[in-house]
Design goal:
The protein is an all-alpha fold. Helices cover 72% and strands 0% of the residues. The longest helix is centred in the middle third of the chain and has 35 residues.
């Protein structure tokens, strides 16, 4: 009974998140739907494991090729999900299918091998009743071995690829968000760290093979608990995740088809004056969740033009531009309200948190918060 419950736990978790993530209707449903597809194929994988470890041999034989295909799709799908979450604005079959191509080819080859393998020999192969040496491997065994190797390579490449996407996204997000960490990137890292634990477990289990767990209920139980927990966390984080890729936020304001640098000098000056008014007079930087889209709406243009003007006129990205105003506000607060706590300072100066304030100080001045306070108060004395 306990074995059945443990084997079914990742099945229920993945099915639950598959349904939830595929029924989202908000602006961020594109990446969520791909996470839902990832969960669907995970569901197939763990349902297949349930059949295998429950000794339901005939049922498993029917689903085995699909299981092999699903196991080869989960990590490429997660990588595509990560791309949609960070740097890609939409799914493109032509662009993204390349990540699924090795899985598709191996699935076709494996299916052909199964078709030409006698049923009894195929069943014996699946349940470990055939022992061949390297001098006498069947076509089915060779393809199965390749599937395992490709799976392990996928695990490694997905983890490395996601780290690269996070780094690339960090540069991109600085052009759109006033606080990169608070907007999203820390949650993206958490998603990737959770995947790493899952990937390491998958890697180890892939090396050991399922045969190792047939008679080891303790190891099988531990694996089920680990995968159930990690997949639930991934689903929960993915469902809560919002505002990662600026491409999913729309301007609803259009300019001409000119490039930003080709705007007339009068139009550039007009936008610069509006930006100056918004930050110096209205102090919109005090909004901790301020994005470049907010500025674009208030200036009556789109974020591309605002980003270009800030880059070229002020020689900064959007995040640095906003945080410089917040740091000036912070200096005034420290001078005239030295009794304020760090949390009050962060809140009244537009920072989303004390950590955000510390990061801005370290980035701009290469100082700790306490060193920055001391430096500001020293100016007052002088």
């Amino acid at each position: 009974m306990l074995k059945t419950i443990l084997l079914l736990s990742p099945v229920y978790v993945t099915l639950f998140w598959c349904i939830v993530l595929n029924t989202q209707g908000d602006n961020y449903s594109v990446p969520k739907s791909f996470l839902g597809k990832f969960m669907f194929f995970c569901f197939i994988v763990y349902f297949s494991h349930f059949l295998y470890f429950s000794n339901l041999e005939n049922a498993y034989c029917c689903i085995d090729p699909i299981y092999q295909f699903a196991s080869l799709l989960v990590y490429p799908l997660y990588y595509i999900y990560f791309r949609l979450l960070t740097v890609d604005s939409k799914f493109s079959f032509k662009k993204h299918f390349v990540y699924l191509l090795p899985s598709t080819i191996l699935f076709i080859l494996y299916s052909i091998a199964v078709f030409f393998t006698p049923q009894e020999e195929y069943k014996a192969f699946l349940f470990g009743e055939i022992q061949h040496t390297l001098n006498h491997l069947s076509y089915l065994e060779i393809i199965s071995f390749l599937i395992r190797i490709v799976f392990l390579i996928q695990v490694i490449l997905t983890v490395i690829g996601n780290f690269r996407l996070i780094k690339k996204y960090g540069h991109k997000a600085a052009q759109y968000y006033s606080d990169i960490e608070d907007s999203s990137i820390s949650k993206v890292r958490l998603l990737n760290y959770t995947l790493i634990i899952t990937a390491l477990s998958s890697f180890i289990l892939g090396m050991l093979g399922r045969g190792f767990f047939i008679s080891e209920i303790t190891y099988l139980s531990a694996a089920s608990v680990i995968f159930s927990s990690m997949l639930y966390i991934i689903g929960w984080l993915g469902n809560k995740q919002k505002s990662l890729n600026p491409a999913y936020e729309t301007d609803n304001v259009t300019e001409t088809q000119q490039k930003p640098e080709e705007l007339s000098l009068n139009r550039q000056n007009e936008l610069i004056n509006k930006i100056d008014y918004l930050f110096n007079d209205r102090k919109i930087y005090l909004n901790s969740s301020l994005t470049i889209l907010d500025v674009a709406r208030l200036t009556g243009t789109n974020r591309t033009y605002v980003s270009s003007l800030i880059n070229h006129h002020f020689h900064q990205n959007f995040s640095a531009f906003v945080n410089n105003y917040r740091l000036k506000e912070l200096e005034e607060k420290i001078l005239f309200n030295p009794e304020y706590s760090n949390s009050v300072l962060a809140e009244t100066c537009g920072f989303g948190s004390v950590d955000s304030m510390k990061r801005a100080i370290a980035t701009r001045h290469k100082l700790t918060l306490q060193e920055f306070k001391s430096q500001v108060l020293l100016k007052k004395v002088v």
